[in-house]
Amino acid sequence: MPQYYKLERVREMADQDEDFVAALAAAFIDEVPEDAERLRKAVPEKDYYETYQAAHKMKPTIELFDLGVYDELIEVQDWGKFEQEDKNVEAQLQKVLSAIENATKEIKADFNL
Which residues contact 82 (CB under 8 A, 6 or more apart)? Predict the structure, then answer.
């Protein structure tokens, strides 16, 4: 059973079609780590726009796979959206990046990707 992500919402959305579940897992692997890397660079550079864009794009997938860091991702997104110069979101960012890294490794192993 997956430890770093959950498939309940994915299976519900896929109407229990395991081929579609596998396709969604592959899409996660193709897109989320790339967007995580965008965040990894944008936050320290105080690139608010890029932070907002990357976090916003990731939200549905992070929620769908239930990584457990949705609220932290929203904080990072809002930091970028509202250019909250006085706020430090480094801890939230690290939690999000760690969750994505762990889920990515696990999904790759679980789906042989």
Answer: none
